[in-house]
Amino acid sequence: MARAVTNQRKAMNTFFAWALGLLIFFPILWTILTSFKTEAQAISDPPIFFFFDWTLENYKAVLERSDYAKFLWNSIFIAGGSTLLGIIIAVPAAWSMAFVPSKRTKDILLWMLSTKMLPAVGVLYPIYLICIELGVLDSRIALVFILMLINLPIIVWMLYTYFKEIPVDILEAARMDGASLRDEIIHVLTPMAIPGIASTVLLNVILAWNEAFWTLNLTAADAAPLTAFIASYSSPEGLFFAKLSAASTMAIAPILIMGWFSQKQLVRGLTFGAVK
Amino acid sequence: MSLKNTLCAAVAASFLSAGVASADKLTIATVNNGDMIRMQGMTEDFTKKTGHTVEWVTLEENVLRQRVTTDITTKGGAFDIMTIGMYETPIWGKNKWLVPLDDLSEGYNAADILPAMSGGLSYDGTLYAAPFYGESSMIMYRKDLMEKAGMEMPKSPSWSFIARAARKMTDRDADINGICLRGKAGWGEGGAFITAMSNSFGARWFDEKWNAQFDTREWSDTLNFYKNMMDDAGPKGFATNGFNENLSLFQQGKCGMWIDATVAASFVTNPKDSKVADKVGFALAPDNGMGRRSNWLWAWALAIPAGTQKEAAAKQFIEWATSTDYIELVAAKEGWANVPPGARTSLYENENYKKVPFAQMTLDSILSANPKASTVDPSPYVGVQFAAIPEFAGIATEVSQEFSAAYAGKQTIAEALAKAQTITNDAMEAAGYK
Amino acid sequence: MATQHSRSAACMMMAPAVVLLLGWMLVPLIMTLFFSFKKYLPLRGDSLSDGLEWVGFLNYERFISSGSFWPSVQTTLIIVLSVLIITVTLGVLLALLLDQPMWGQGVVRILVIAPFFVMPTVSALVWKNMFMDPINGILAHLWKFFGAEPVLWLSEASLPSIIIIVSWQWLPFATLILLTAIQSLDSEQLEASEIDGAPKLKRFWHIILPHLSRSITIVILIQTIFVLAVFAEIFVTTGGAFGTKTLTYLIFQRVLDSQNIGLGSAGGVYAIILANIVAIFLMRIVGKNLDA
Questions:
Q1: What pLDDT, on the 0 to 100 scale, is given for residue A102?
Q2: Rounded CA gap, B67 and A205, in Å?
Q3: pLDDT greater at residue B321 or residue C49
Q4: Contact A183, A174 (CB under 8 A)
Q5: Which of B323, B342, C30, C46 qualifies as a cystine partner to B134, CB 3.0-4.6 A?
Q6: B21: Cβ–Cβ under 8 A, 6 or more apart, which residues?
Q7: CA C40 → CA A125, B387, C46, C236, C264, distances in Å?
Q8: Are B269 and B406 in the same domain?
Q9: A187: distance to nearest CA of chain C, Å?
Q10: Does residue B197 sit within a domain?
Q11: Chains that touch C (3 or more CB pairs under 8 A)
Q12: How many angstroms separate the CA atoms of C33 and B70, rounded?
């Protein structure tokens, strides 16, 4: 058909895309490679690419020293919990903004985004004092709430824009058929919105996963997630690159694997929802 | 049986049960340096002896500092023990935020702590933090390169000797820099080095009335000397090098000399990580014949925030971690070169420890630094590479940013000093010193 | 067609998000405003429970009269603008490329998205030590390989270095959003134009780009918010030296290094004002894409 492509063009595309992809990925590849080197090899001059004595000693050292499972679980709990909670609160809000817009919708959206602009460090003391007052220092639940609030504007925003792409005619058609508001949401909107929700979820899990200000400053021993795990390996006195690389690899691996499995659904985005 | 006896028995019983049954869980915030990591590995020994368990919160130095400071100033109570330095201890002690450590047990022998260390960790004569390890700074140099340059390192060299040696050892084609020094912005990084260095040039941060002194000839001499030497004999990009950057350069054999923390000695002489492990010599940090050397004094110490419920257990932990027994425990498991240095006099009298190549030089360096009289001209502050006042960290970080910009050639030294003078005086005025 | 019924339902549905965010905004904002008018030096023994001294606008005056203020605003704006331009331009190109048929598309996509998964501290450390180091960095080796003098990235090209690191982190986000948008482009529309024989460039300007405009708006808005607050990348690499001190970084120094909460809070208020000016500006330029 019209979009059928010659193999030659496909090969060109492939070449360029892979070259660029590898270039962008290189710093991460390099981190992963470094995690299998000894500390001395990690800073060797000239740099060694593949031909070094691959060792697992860094991973062993990291696992011996830190309770990786605990950090991992806290990260999953906090990132997952805050995203889930955020979605539950944001879907209705975004839905109503997209389909029942009023004059103030845009203002409300902008205002929501503006709440993100208060620099975190400026409110460290107020928030810390509130947490002490409520007795929720070093608690996972508190972090779930805070990260949810931090990312809520983004979630609402993204969902809003996805929902907006759903053509209104289809809703009106459903309404003419006598569908109730509930039917409309469950049977018509939700299936179309799922890809949009999926990408929103993934992006927010990543944002929450990497959030390193509140997760570091409001935790001690119990609720500390992987950002704190990383902070215990970065820049000690002495050589640290191989161990930091191992710790980093361990910190990004879960989310990278998640991305790997979900990228198709993610990128497919809204194509499947669109009505012809 | 009288009522009194019954009461006494009851009280005694409750005390006993309190002593036995209350196995506390201590939360300890610490920095991620090697000696602390080793301590974590030894925690079992503490639990076995006392019944208390320990939860470690190990963080990178900068994150730790902001974490514990936030917690102590808000009385958050997230930690039972905090690892802090010589800068924080007297300030926090003055505010009564720390539990005084004046009632440690007889067996602990607090008198054994090096006077320089206990002095820097006290306020008004009361100890507020127990040193886990202490450090000064000294010269680490390559004996082979020094020989090649046809020079010999004296035990206590002068700056002019160092500059001459640095230029002579430099071999740009072979990627060898005569000298590697910190230039990185930050009060604990390049700021600490240049402040300690300025002491030997007769400079000081403040005069006795808390006026900034960056408009003096001594400061401009210090910076000019530093920059000229580094331009000729330092590594490329030295303005962004801190401890770790220089360490890796030295370990790769790219530095002829390196003046930095005494604890680095065990890293550069460790053949596993260092290419030059068998070629390193040590000397005292240089001076200018003005009576002050350019070495600093620092300790990582354990302190108990006031208001913790677990004060007794926390004290037990501190006694355990900073005791001579602990040092022997580490020595038995990991060898004498790996014990936490610089805290106790008895360590340097130990025959086994005397065999460690950098032991004596470390002690001599520590002993030659005096926080109470660090400057040639009298100054109103305590501290060698810092001034133990609450405003210092903020001011010195900004000042060191200006210095780093001058090192990188983005502004002249005169400009940097003029800005430093303004920054410091403004901040001191804002803090109510004038 | 919104009925009265659906209107009130809509309000109900919005309520939780609005109320929560209102709380989350107001409580810290009010506390920040409160502190900004007080002398609050915790290391000097000031504490909330003992009451804080009212100092009027002194903190505001001090913050703005410091020599670091205007340069920090300028640095912030340069970083935000450069990162936006780089990520949007490259993001569109990458998205177009990734939309083409090729072998191993899935793998390439994950390669491109991956930097977004890396924590800012880690990516800053990796870039600083493994790439931009003038002696051990890979870039230095590359330069030397071609006989050039290695660049002193973090001191002589400090701002570009920060921009490179931040752009590397945010490019995947832009690409991902834009790719989703391109794939939702009505393929019939494209095919029709293809059959018309419209030149590629024209097709891009008249069909693809207008279709992407709303996604680009989202990318710009969201990235602006995050890049305005960029911190770890500066903290790890230059420590605020060499003209890389942003407004956020300046506030960090006032609050955590100097332990002057009042002064830092005043800075926080300025940062909010700046962010809102930027937001209004953005709205002027791209806001029309939000009406649909």
A1: 78
A2: 25
A3: B321
A4: yes
A5: B342
A6: none
A7: 11, 21, 6, 28, 10
A8: yes
A9: 17
A10: yes
A11: A, B
A12: 19
B276 & B173 share domain: yes
Q: Is B374 a member of any domain?
A: no
By DSSP bridging, strand B122-123 and strand B255-261 are unpaired
Nearest to C67 among B70, B235, B422 (CB): B422
Minimal Cα–Cα distance from C273 to chain B, Å?
Answer: 24
Average pLDDT over residues B281-306: 95
Question: Sign of the CA dihedral C154, C158, C164, C170?
Answer: positive
B283, containing H or E segment: strand B280-284
Residue C47 tokens read as 């504490």
Question: In this structure, are residues C261 and B70 in contact, taking their beta carbons and an 8 Å threshold?
Answer: no
Q: Cα separation of C105 and C172, whole Å? A: 15
**pLDDT over 60 at A121, yes or no:** yes
Q: Residues of B with CB below 8 A from C154's CB?
A: 237, 240
- Domain CATH for B61: 3.40.190.10
CATH number at C52-290: 1.10.3720.10
Chains touching B, CB cut-off 8 Å, 3+ pairs: A, C
Burial class (CB in 10 A: 0-12, 13-18, 19+), C159: middle
Are B244 and A240 a contacting pair at CB < 8 A?
A: yes
> Angle C265-C269-C272 (CA atoms, 0-180°, nearest 5)?
135
CA distances from B320 to B272, B374, B405, C27, C238 (A): 30, 32, 45, 44, 39
How big is the A-B interface in CB pairs under 8 Å?
Answer: 102
Contact between C150 and B236 under an 8 Å Cβ cutoff? The reply is yes
Contact A22 C111 (CB under 8 A): yes
* Chain A, chain C: beta-carbon pairs less than 8 Å apart: 288
Overall number of domains in chain B: 2
- Helices (DSSP H) in chain A: which residue ranges? 7-34, 39-42, 57-65, 68-99, 105-114, 124-134, 140-164, 168-176, 181-183, 190-210, 214-217, 226-231, 241-268
Confidence grade of residue A62 (pLDDT, cut at 50, 70, 90): very high
CATH number for the segment(s) A66-232: 1.10.3720.10
Domain range summary for chain A, segments of one domain joined by +: 66-232
Read off the pLDDT of residues C163-199 as tens digits, 9 standing for 90 and up.
Answer: 999 999 999 989 988 887 887 776 666 666 666 666 7
Beta carbons of C44 and B431 less than 8 Å apart: yes
Q: pLDDT higher for B4 or B164?
A: B164
**Gyration radius (Cα) of chain A, Å:** 23
Cβ contact, residue pair B245, C237, below 8 Å: no
* ipTM value: 0.86
CB contact under 8 A, A221 and B273: no
**Does B172 reside within a domain?**
yes
Q: What is the pLDDT of residue C202?
A: 80
pLDDT at B4: 52
DSSP A157-220: HHHHHHHHTS-HHHHHHHHHTT--HHHIIIIIIHHHHHHHHHHHHHHHHHHHHH--SHHHHT-S
Assess whether pLDDT exceeds 90 at residue B406: yes
Question: B74 and A240: CB-CB below 8 Å?
Answer: no
Rounded to two decimals, the pTM is: 0.89
The pLDDT assigned to C177 comes to 83
Report yes or no: C80 and C227 within 8 Å, Cβ to Cβ.
yes
- CA C145 to each of CA B427, C138, C139: distance values in angstroms, whole numbers, following the listed order: 48, 10, 10
What's the whole-number average pLDDT of chain C? 85
Residues spanned by the domain of B67 = 20-135+298-354
Over residues B79-87, the mean pLDDT reads 96
d(CA B312, CA B29) in angstroms, rounded, equals 17
What interhelical angle do C69-99 and C105-113 show, nearest 10?
180
Cβ separation of C259 and B252 shorter than 8 Å? no
Radius of gyration of chain C (CA): 24
Q: Is the pLDDT of residue B16 over 60?
A: no
Give the percent of chain B with pLDDT over 90: 84
**Partners of B212 in the beta sheet?**
B206
